[in-house]
């Protein structure tokens, strides 16, 4: 004999193969939902960073406008001082405010550079890539009701979908663990290569004078083969029962995880929607009432200062309030869009997709 070559294959019962395939399919779907969850997170991070940049860019524009306004006010105060109607302290106070605006502008430019770097890092772009400023836009209107958004979130949120696929996988693993009581079958084939050799020739029997019969097959060197069949007996019942308990506990843990995730998603949707409603109303109030009134108050005290009926302190106070309200308006718009990004990430789709139509909008500041 030169060598022996054999192959064998374990053949589980068809139910085991079916459940193993379902486990693999569920894990593939889990991976797909994980990718979708990562995609939603990246989109949300980009939107939040971008609208933070929007608020910064608007603050830069407002600060530059107020620098021009403050220079004009310095000239007014200087003219009043030359005419002998005002003191030099008014000019100095205005110059301090102008220097403070310059300081704020430096800080805003630093914050913009940091936010641009954040956006480029999220998008995996070179740090030097520029991000153009976002033009002014109108206030967002979010139409869907809470019940509709929660219904969408339970269907579309990729994290919930991943956990549901995880539950499907664990259900199949439990069924597969129970099938371990069933034996597996084994089929095999073996081939033995033989070399020809001189057969053993027995001596002549002295009593009969005849040579006993003997086989000449080894002289021919014919190969031999065999078919094997076997079955394994699952006699380690404690190991099987342990596997069943483990699969059952894993399934229970996944169901609890889904319940916890739904509660968290529900809170995120409710919180984001409440913030959106509040920030939208505040932005509308700034645009239609507070900012126009603050501007009017500033203009009145400025004219009063020129005519000598108002004090310079009142001019500065009203100017500061007007500046603060304008900055706060755009911060609120940025916060509103970041809240929308939070809501979209919790729901799993954009608000436009959740509504089925384009979101209606209303005019912003000055509209």
Describe the structure.
The protein is mainly α. The protein has a single domain, classed as Outer membrane efflux proteins (OEP) (Up-down Bundle), CATH 1.20.1600. 69% of the residues lie in helices and 8% in strands. The protein contains eight helices and five strands. A three-stranded antiparallel β-sheet has the order 1-3-4, with no helix packed on it. A two-stranded antiparallel sheet has the order 2-5. Helix 1 runs antiparallel to helix 2 and helix 1 packs antiparallel against helix 7. It is elongated.
* Largest β-sheet summary: 3 strands, antiparallel
How far apart, in Å, are the first and last alpha carbons? 99 Å
Q: Return the domain count.
A: 1
Architecture per CATH nomenclature, i.e. the level-2 architecture: Up-down Bundle
Uncertain runs: 357-367
CATH-level-4 superfamily name: Outer membrane efflux proteins (OEP)
Can you count the beta strands? 5
**Approximately how much beta-strand content do the residues carry?**
5-15%
Indicate the percent of residues in helices.
55-70%
What is the H-and-E element order?
EHHEHHEHEHHHE
Radius of gyration: 41 Å
Lateral arrangement of strands in the main beta sheet: 1-3-4
The mean pLDDT is 86
Please tell me what the overall shape is. Answer: elongated
Compute the number of helices.
Answer: 8
- CATH class annotation: Mainly Alpha
Helix-and-strand structural type? mainly alpha
CATH topology-level name: Outer membrane efflux proteins (OEP)
């Amino acid at each position: 004999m030169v060598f022996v070559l054999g192959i064998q294959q374990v053949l589980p019962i068809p139910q085991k193969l079916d459940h193993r395939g379902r486990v693999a399919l569920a894990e593939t779907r889990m991976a797909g939902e994980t990718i979708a969850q990562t995609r939603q997170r990246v989109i949300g991070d980009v939107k939040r960073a971008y609208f933070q940049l929007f608020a910064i860019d608007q603050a830069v524009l407002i600060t530059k406008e107020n620098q021009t306004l403050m220079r004009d006010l310095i000239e007014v105060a200087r003219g009043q001082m030359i005419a002998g109607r005002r003191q030099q302290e008014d000019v100095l106070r205005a110059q301090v405010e102008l220097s403070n605006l310059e300081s704020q502008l430096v800080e805003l430019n630093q914050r913009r550079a940091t936010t641009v770097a954040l956006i480029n890092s999220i998008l995996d772009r070179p740090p030097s890539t520029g991000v153009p400023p976002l033009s002014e836009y109108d206030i967002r209107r979010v139409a869907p009701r809470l019940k509709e958004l929660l219904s969408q979130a339970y269907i579309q949120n990729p994290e919930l979908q991943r956990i549901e696929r995880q539950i499907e996988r664990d259900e199949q693993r439990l069924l597969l663990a129970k099938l371990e009581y069933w034996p597996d079958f084994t089929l095999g084939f073996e081939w033995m290569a033989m070399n020809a050799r001189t057969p053993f020739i027995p001596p002549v029997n002295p009593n009969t004078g005849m040579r006993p019969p003997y086989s000449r097959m080894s002289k021919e060197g014919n190969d031999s083969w065999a078919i094997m069949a076997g079955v394994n007996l699952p006699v380690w019942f404690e190991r099987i029962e342990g596997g069943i308990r483990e699969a059952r506990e894993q399934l229970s843990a996944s169901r609890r995880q889904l319940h916890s995730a739904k509660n968290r998603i529900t809170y995120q949707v409710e919180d984001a929607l409440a913030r959106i409603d509040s920030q939208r109303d505040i932005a509308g109030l700034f645009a239609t009432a507070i900012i126009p009134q603050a501007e009017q108050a500033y203009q009145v005290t400025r004219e009063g200062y020129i005519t000598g009926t108002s004090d310079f302190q009142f001019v500065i106070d009203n100017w500061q309030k007007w500046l603060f309200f304008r900055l706060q308006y755009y911060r609120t718009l940025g916060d509103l869009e970041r809240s929308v990004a939070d809501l979209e990430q919790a729901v799993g789709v954009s608000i436009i997709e959740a509504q089925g139509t384009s979101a209606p909008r209303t005019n912003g500041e000055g509209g």
